[in-house]
Amino acid sequence: MRYLLTSSVTLFLAAPIFTEDTALAQAGHAIRPGLAAAAHCLHESLLETSAANRGPVADGARLQLAGLERRDQIAH
Fold first, then answer.
1. DSSP states of 2-70 as a string?
2. What is the residue range of 46's domain?
């Protein structure tokens, strides 16, 4: 199992890891600004690398996204 550290969130990945730079570059091309865009891109990357979007990796990605989007809503 590999680990990806992002700001205050640790994401556990069983599939090939995306570097933090790759996730940030993807977020930079997103339409939605800020934390929501980063969360969306990270979520998509995690779901694409998880097995059929099921299991603990995909569930963890969904929880991470929900938490990041809550933080974004609170900030606005």
1. EEEEETTEEEEESSPPPPHHHHHHHHHT-SS-HHHHHHHHHHHHHHHHSGGG-SHHHHHHHHHHHHHHH
2. 2-75
Cβ neighbours of 13 (radius 10 Å): 18
Written as six digits, the tokens of 61 are 């990605």
pTM above 0.70, yes or no: no
Burial annotation 29-53 (CB, 10 A radius, 16+ → b, else e): eeeeeebbbbbbbbbebbbebbeee
More confident residue, 58 or 74: 74
User: Do residues 41 and 11 make contact, with C-beta atoms less than 8 angstroms apart?
Assistant: no
| Total structural domains within the chain | 1
